[in-house]
Structure formats: C-alpha cells, structure tokens
Amino acid sequence: MAHNDPQCKPLTRAQQQRRSDIVRAALKVFDRDGFEGARIEDVAREAEIAKGTVYLYFPNKQALLEGVVHEVISPEVDEVERTALDPQLSPGERLRRQIKIIGARLGSGDMKIILRLMMGEGPKNEELRKFYYHEVVERGMAAISQCLADGVRTGEFVKSADKIEPQVFAGTPLLAAVWGILFDDLAPLDVNKLLESHCEQLLTGLERR
Amino acid sequence: MAHNDPQCKPLTRAQQQRRSDIVRAALKVFDRDGFEGARIEDVAREAEIAKGTVYLYFPNKQALLEGVVHEVISPEVDEVERTALDPQLSPGERLRRQIKIIGARLGSGDMKIILRLMMGEGPKNEELRKFYYHEVVERGMAAISQCLADGVRTGEFVKSADKIEPQVFAGTPLLAAVWGILFDDLAPLDVNKLLESHCEQLLTGLERR
Amino acid sequence: MAHNDPQCKPLTRAQQQRRSDIVRAALKVFDRDGFEGARIEDVAREAEIAKGTVYLYFPNKQALLEGVVHEVISPEVDEVERTALDPQLSPGERLRRQIKIIGARLGSGDMKIILRLMMGEGPKNEELRKFYYHEVVERGMAAISQCLADGVRTGEFVKSADKIEPQVFAGTPLLAAVWGILFDDLAPLDVNKLLESHCEQLLTGLERR
Amino acid sequence: MAHNDPQCKPLTRAQQQRRSDIVRAALKVFDRDGFEGARIEDVAREAEIAKGTVYLYFPNKQALLEGVVHEVISPEVDEVERTALDPQLSPGERLRRQIKIIGARLGSGDMKIILRLMMGEGPKNEELRKFYYHEVVERGMAAISQCLADGVRTGEFVKSADKIEPQVFAGTPLLAAVWGILFDDLAPLDVNKLLESHCEQLLTGLERR
DNA sequence: GATGAATGAGGGTTCATTCAT
DNA sequence: GATGAATGAACCCTCATTCAT
Fold first, then answer.
1. Nearest 10 degrees: CA dihedral of A29, A32, A34, A36?
2. A181 in Cβ contact with A110 (< 8 Å)
C-alpha cells in the first residue's frame, strides 16, 4: 500500500484518517517513552489497530518518526505565520506577537514533543534535521527578520535593528520549551511573564525614543 | 567492586583513572549513537577494555549515564563559576562574561552532549533532571541574578533590573547550543557574534544612561 | 498474546497445540540439562519454532517451568485417581494397586522429570512446591489413607491400620523413582518386584489373619 | 597448587583447613542457591577468602561440587556404620537403629543438601552418581541386608526375610528427607514417629511370632 | 600462596519487521 | 486491506575462569 510514497496511489480519505490516527498515537507514545523506547505495538494499541497495520502506512519506525514530525509541524507553522503576520499591527507589535506565539507553540503540546524528538534523533537523521530547519527554524527566523526590517523602514526601530540576529529573539521561547520538558516539576516557569519580560528588554533597546 | 557506591571502599588512583576512561568513552559513544542506541560493548571497545569491566564500575547502563552526567558537569560548573566571578569586574562586565561563558560551555564539547542526553533521558529519570537542575540551572540562574542585583546596587543598572528573570539572559546561549547540535551543518552560527549581539541588546536596556 | 494468563483471551486450538508442543519440548530439554542448564533456544529448536515464539506463550523461563509442571501433573494425577479407585476391589487390593501405580507413575517418564525439577527448583519456588504438594502429595496421601480407613471399616485390616501414616506406603515408590533417576545405569532395579515385595511386607502386618 | 590432585604434594594442615572451609562455605551456598545458582564469589565470601583462592583448591566449579559431596559423605557414612553395627544388639534392634539413623542422617543437615545436589547434578555427572552409589547407597543397602541375614541366622526373623530387597526399608527414610526439602513449611512431618511406624509395620511381618 | 580486577562467552529477553490467513 | 502470530537479530547483564601483582 501507501507508505507515503509519492509513487503510490494517493490515499483515500479513510486511509488518510487512519494514517493520521497512527501519527497521533505515535506522537503520544513517543512523548511518553521517547523514540527508541517506543514500541510499535504500543503505537498500534493506542491507535486501536493491529501492529501490522502500522506497516501498511509506514515502511518502518524511522519513517513513522518522519511522518510524525512532518504531520505535526506543518499546521503549527502555518498557524504561527498566519497569526503573526497581521498587517494591521505595527512591526513592534508583530514582533511581540511573534515571540509570544513561538514561545507558546514551541512550549506547549505537540511541538514540545517534536523538539525533544529532534534533539534525540536529529543528529542521526539528516532528513529530519533539514526538514525541521527549513520548515520551522528558517521560516521562524525569516518572520522575525521581516519584523525587524519593517520596523526600521517605518522608523519605529533604530537603524541598526535589522542587523540583529533573529536568534536573539528566539532564545527565550526555546528556553521556555526546554524548561517545560525538563524542569517544570522542580521549578514551574511562568512562561507568559517570562516572554513578556523578554520582549520588554529587547524592544526597549530597539525602539527609538 | 566499586560501582561508585559511597558504601564501597574508595577507588585506588588506577581505578579512578579507569572509571574516568569509561566515562569518557561512554560520553563519546552516547554522543555518536544517543543513550538508547549506545551499546555497552562499544563503550568498552572505545575504552579499550572488556565488556564485563564496565560493570565493575557501573551496575548498569542507567548508572553509567548518571556517572557520565555527574562527571562531566561538576568541573564545567566549577569553571563557569570561577571564571565568571572575578570581583574586579563591574557587574555589567561580569554579566557579559557570564553569558559568553554559559554560551561557550553549553555549546561546546561535553556539555552539548549532556544537554542532548538530558533532553532524551531527563523526562524518564528524575534523578538526572534534579541533578542537572541543581548543579547547572540553579547555579547558572543564581549567578546571573547576582550580577543583576550587584548592578542595581552599584547604580550601574536601572532599579528594575533585578526584577528581570535570569532566564531571559540564558535563552540565547541555550539556543546556540541547540543550534550547534542540530543545524550547524545546514547553517553554521557565529556563536560569539550572536552572544555579543544578545548582550548588547539586553544591556542597552539595562544600563542607566 | 497468550501467556497462559487467565486474563487473556482463551487460546485457539492451534495455540493450545503449540503451547503444548513447547511444554513437551521444555520437558525434554529440562530432563536432559536440568532447569538452569536448559537454554530457551534449545527448547525452541526442540519445538521447531523460533526462540521468540516461546515468549509468546510464557513470559519467562520460570513461567515455562511452572507451565511444564502444571501441564504434566494434572493428567497424571487424574489417571492415578481414576485407576486406583475401582470400587469393585477390596481395600487391600486397592492399596496394592495404588502403590504400584504411584510407583509406576512417579518412576516413569514425565513425573520422574518433574520430581527432579521439584528437587532442584522447589526450594526456590513456593508456588511450585505448593502446587506439587496439593496436586500430587496431598491427593496421593489422601487416597492411601482412604484405603486404610476402608479396610478397617470392612474388617479386612486390623483396627490400628488407619493410624498408619500414608507416607509409609509412599516411601518405596519414591525410592524407586529416585533410583531410576540416579542409579539405573549402575544397578538397575526391578521396580515391579520391589513394589510387590513392599506391598507384601506392609500388608502382612495389616491384614487380619 | 593442590586441586585435590593425587599428583600434587599433599596439603599442609593449614591448607587442609582452608580447603575444608571452602567446602563448608560451598555447602551452605549450594543449599541456599542450588548448584547452578551458586556463585563462586559467594562461596569465597562465605569462606572469607578471595574468589581466586577457591581456584587454588579446586580447578573449577564441578570439582568444588565433587569436593563437597566427597567431604560431606565420608564422615556421615562412617558414623552411620559405626553407630549401627553395635554387635551387642539383636539383628531386629540393629535394623531399627539402622533405619532411624538413615532417616536422621539423610533428612538432617548436610546429607539433605547432598541429596538435593545429587538429584540436580547427578544425571549430568557420572562420577558423582558412582561415588554416591558406592559410598552411600551400596553401603547402606549392604548394612540392611546384613541385618536381615543375621536375623534369619539367629532365628529372629522368618526364613524369607533375607529375600527382601533392602530398598523396602530405605524408602521411608528417603521420603522423609525429600519431604524435609520440599514440604516442611506446608505440612511438617514428625520424622521420628514416621520412622517408628515404618519399622513397626515392616518388622511385624518379619519377626517370628 | 593470596588477591580481586579483568575477561568474554553465554543466555534471557525484547521488539522491529514479516507474512500467512 | 487488516490482522497478530512468528521470527531472529540484537543487546544487557552475569559469572566462571584467568592472571598480573
């Protein structure tokens, strides 16, 4: 059958649904047990199908991981871009939103799991790394850079603002996500307040007057 | 024999050396294959000893992981604190140094591996999480907070500076480290320049005048 | 799958057959190598299945042992009771038969292997001990005691006969079994003759006139 | 060094002591864990020596087992024969004593352990089987037969008494020993009473008038 | 002789993957 | 297509045995 192979016949709607069920199940199990620790049988049970059925949709465990990463990321990034690019807002406001959304997305739910999977499996899987880089990082960085450039153009930001590496803005959202993965039980973090504070500090130095 | 058990007789110098060799070997193999993917046999081969010998020093693979984390972290943190706490420097200068060192340490060599291991195994291993939190995160955060408080006291920083969450300062160093793990082959990052820029942005909003 | 777990779905006929094949194979290998010396791989080869398949039917080696003991014992005991309880026979005759059958069963084939396994693993495994005691020993002792009581009631035996410990009657059959395990190549024993003689001696003192 | 090899120099007194210590330690550990389950290291610890030292006295684990069996059996058998062969007693009395002593010896302490070891390892080790047969079984059977023959000669027993297989007399003592190994916690057995009863039954049919 | 660190073959168990039904 | 029993490679860990000190 399918295997997400472009050669193959496109999936019927029901098959797409099933594929998606498997991905959701896998995401849950990967979150609980990590990628290596996850058993295909558990994924199948979680998806309420037989173990063999997983292999009708993904040729092997690696491909399942890739499927999970792809399927989770696309809608997330779309939403980030859609939400953040409101042309009615000033560049500064857009930048604040951007950062908040990146923080909220990275740190909550599915993307946090993906982040963890990336850290574990990325180094062994170039396709994963590339995909994540181009779909998430590059687009996120570009969106931030765009805000900076816009701000300079409108005069809201100081001239040098578009020289700033966008990574400076993304660091705290990433930290919040990592904190959520590792330390939330030891020292819960008020992510919103942190991101607010982060924006405040950075924008203070950016805005003219 | 030993097992790093405080109950046991202290290790001889030769034994400490061997234990350390095993830890170095494990670090290398964990880096290459991840924790779950690492085979004890490979660790042994890397350390140029027999498989069984590993078990003379660590009761199981988990303990080896913990040994690695402990042994790597302690000297790193010591060095960070030692380097950063030069009392001759102004609080602002100390803060810059702090961030640079955190970035350099997190992002280079052993601590990067530890970070990756933490992301993979931390969620399954509370002891690991706690250790890392108390030894690395808490101390790092405290050092940053200290700089902020000192700066306020000396009048170098604005009054509100000590209200800022130290995590704001640590985000970019963390991002640099994660970038180094995942994307350096796709888009190399000039970490020093990034951290410089990061300091610039943050301190601009912090310093009076 | 199954694991003989009462929680699980009942096994299909084919699965029962396979489970039984594994038990037979294990019995053979346990007999040849002892329990600890037996390798699961050998059991699998003997059953003409893959090593992993054994674990579809038994969660571990201990459980396989217990499975073997249970599966072998039940039909044996049933047969002993069935054969021995012919109500047409006099108590004395029933007692003779009983002893002969115990001797024959204990000493031949599967029960001899079980006896040997019990001696080796029983001390470490209470469930095994309990099972063997209740299924084999207790029922065997009860059957003998019943004969004695019946004989007293019918007047065939002297009054005091039902005070005799049934173990007195079971000793020689046990000895015959142990002898068969250990010394048959050194000094073959005519079990039938021995049991005959044993009955003769004991019944002489029991029967009135 | 020695290895109990007749080729080697005879052991010094201190060495004999140490060898004996190891045997006692091994007996204890074999009892607790069975032969296969016993670890040489535990034997060494029990004997309060280093693991390697065991190998100075026994070439391997099998030899240690043989050493244990040999060392335990000899004095036991000697004592049985010595105690039982009191020429002052009548053959009937000697037979009673014999049975009681066999029961007491087999069932208590070291010989019970040996019995269990024999059941487990005997089938794999002909030397062990032969040794036990010749040293224990054969001598025990001979002693019983001797009593029977003597009793016939003195007229105490019926003529046919020396046709009876001595195994008939040894069964109950063996059963008592096996019971002690397996079922004493489930249903304690009054061994003395049982053996008394056993003698009663058998001798009643043996003695003239 | 005594020690105990080192060795490495061996075996129980897991689980990704296959394939007959 | 869906199933889940079967497969067997892989890997952690144990422990009898060796040998340098």
1. -60
2. no
Asked if strand E contacts A38 at the CB level, meaning under 7 A, the answer is yes
Q: Which of residues 64-83 of A touch strand F (CB under 7 A)?
A: none
Report whether D121 contacts D61 (CB < 8 A): no
Q: Regarding predicted confidence, which is higher, C83 or A15? A: A15
Could you report the per-residue pLDDT of C86-139, keeping only the tens digit for each?
Answer: 778 888 888 998 888 888 888 778 999 999 999 999 999 999 999 999 999 999
Alpha helical stretches, state H, A108-206: 110-121, 126-132, 138-154, 167-182, 191-204
What residues does D207 pair with on adjacent strands?
A: D157
Task: Take residue C146 and report the two structure tokens written for it.
Answer: 């019943």
Question: Average pLDDT over chain A, rounded to whole?
Answer: 90
What is the model's pLDDT at position D182? Answer: 96
Superfamily of domain D65-204: Tetracycline Repressor, domain 2 (1.10.357.10)
**Phi and psi at residue B123, in whole multiples of 5°?**
-60, -20
* Residue of B182, B184, B193, B206 to mutate, testing the A interface (most A Cβ within 10 Å of its Cβ): B182
The HSE-up count of residue D156 (CA atoms within 13 Å, CB side) is 15
Quote the CA–CA distance of C31 and C116 in Å, as a whole number. Answer: 8
Question: Cα distance from D149 to chain C (closest Cα, Å)?
Answer: 16
Q: How far apart are the first and last CA of chain B?
A: 63
Judging contact as 3 or more Cβ pairs under 8 Å, the answer for B and A is yes
Angstrom distance (rounded) from CA C75 to CA D20:
47
Euclidean distance between CA atoms A60 and B133, whole angstroms: 36
Q: Where are the alpha helices (DSSP H) in chain D?
A: 13-37, 40-47, 51-57, 61-84, 91-107, 110-121, 126-132, 139-154, 167-182, 191-204
In this complex, the nucleotide whose C1' atom is nearest to the CA atom of residue A1 is F1
Residue C52: CB less than 7 A from any atom in strand F: yes
Given a contact cutoff of 8 angstroms between Cβ atoms, the answer to whether C129 and C73 are in contact is: no
The model's pLDDT over D123-171, given as tens digits with 9 standing for 90+, comes to: 999 999 999 999 999 998 998 999 999 999 999 999 989 899 999 999 9
**Shortest Cα distance, chain B CAs vs residue A2, angstroms:** 29
Lowest mean pLDDT: which of B8-22, B81-95, D25-39, D51-65?
A: B81-95
CA distance D184 to D171: 18
The CATH label, of 1.10.4030, 1.10.357, 1.10.10, 1.10.3470, for the domain at A62-204 is: 1.10.357
Output B27-35 pairs: Cβ under 8 A, ≥24 positions apart: B27/B68, B27/B72, B27/B110, B27/B113, B30/B65, B30/B68, B30/B113, B30/B117, B31/B113, B31/B116, B33/A124, B34/A36, B34/A120, B34/A121, B34/A123, B34/A124, B34/B116, B34/B117, B34/B120, B35/B61, B35/B65, B35/B117, B35/B120, B35/B121
Protein residue minimizing CA–C1' distance to E19? A52
CATH 1.10.10.60 is right for the domain spanning B1-59: yes
Compute the radius of gyration of chain D from its Cα atoms.
20
CB A72 within 8 A of CB A114: yes
Judged by average pLDDT, the poorest of D45-54, D100-109, D178-187 is D100-109
D72-111 pLDDT, tens digit per residue, is: 998 888 877 777 677 788 888 888 988 888 888 887 789 9
Residues of D in contact with C29 (CB under 8 A): none
How far is D167 from D175, CA to CA, in rounded Å?
Answer: 12
**How far apart are the C-alpha atoms of D27 and B170, rounded to whole Å?**
63
Domain ranges across chain D: 1-59, 65-204
Phi, psi (degrees; rounded to nearest 5) at D207: -75, 145
3-state secondary structure (DSSP) of residue B52: helix
Query: Residue C93 CB: number of other CB atoms within 10 A?
Result: 15
